[in-house]
Amino acid sequence: MTRAYNFCAGPAALPQSVLSEAQKDLLNYKGKGLSVMEMSHRSNDYVAIAEEAEKDLRDLLKVPANYKVLFLQGGASLQFAQIPMNLLRGHSTADYVNTGMWSAKAIAEAKKYCDVNVVASDEHNKFRSVPAFDTWNLNSKAAYLHYAENETIHGVQFNYIPEVDVPLVADFSSSILSQPLDVSKFGLIYAGAQKNIGPAGIVLVIVREDLLGELLPGTPTMLDYKVAADNGSMYNTPPTFSWYLSGLVFKWLKNLGGLEKMAEINQRKAAKLYAAIDNSGGFYHNPVVKNYRSIMNVPFTLADASLDKTFLKDAEARGLLNLAGHRSVGGMRASIYNAVPEEGVDALIDFMKDFQAKLG
Fold first, then answer.
1. Is residue 10 in some structural domain?
2. 67 three-state secondary structure
3. Is 224 an annotated catalytic residue?
4. What is the CATH number of the domain that holds 276?
5. Domain hosting residue 72, numbered range
6. What is the pLDDT of residues 248-284, one digit of tens each?
7. Which pTM value belongs to this model?
8. Number of domains in the chain
């Protein structure tokens, strides 16, 4: 079977070897006579799967011992509410940075629970950069500072970790596991699975232990991080298949050489694609300030927007799928997450050159 190259922003590509292993296990997991999807999450076999997944993730990210690793439901979007419910801890305000649509969604949700101080925003610049840190209007009384490390829609990514005096909270949904990360600099990080972790249906939360246990009154039990931590993320039935597949992805990353090796590959993929855009003589264009270009999500436009539909149609005919930009910004977007192989990026670049030669 010939597989296409999938540049979808999410649910995104998964490593082919992971899919093959899951296919092999689908009907009869390790000779147990049933599928992972049919196992009790309390069974010894499944608990072993869950514990090994957490261990491998801790190894990959070098997660300190005083952090809890949670595998939750509701996606990153539920975290927009769950974070203030758990981390306000008697404070009435929280700091947020606005660098794109996902930042804006997090801000809008947090406003239901506290006063939100937007310390900086690049909205006036159509989200093409990260506001300079020395311009941020930080509040020393804030419960935490929240930012989206990588904005999938506008293709803007932080190239540093902010140094602040309050717990740092970050949305890593589209960049987690793409390169090494110093978890100890954060109070909490979270990431929806459906980009670099595994299939949709699970969200990863890594939270420092001292931030647990002081809830906003009225917070549902299911949204209490401490309850999740105390129950091994199994207060109720977790999304077992998503958790299992995520574990396979962690194994794949470790076998590849870890996050240092993954970062090397990702940097090379992104550099190639941006070079193809920048060297096209204006036929293709990426609007993001170069220092803040995402290595995961590469938006670009054609000089002649009337060619967009033809570009997408011809790309699909070449086995290059899901290249349409987000409906809010238009144009194109290539999401080149971990599981998108380098040869897929090369194939995209070859197609872009051919398309320009034909219609440029």
1. no
2. strand
3. no
4. 3.90.1150.10
5. 17-255
6. 999 999 999 999 999 999 999 999 999 999 999 999 9
7. 0.96
8. 2
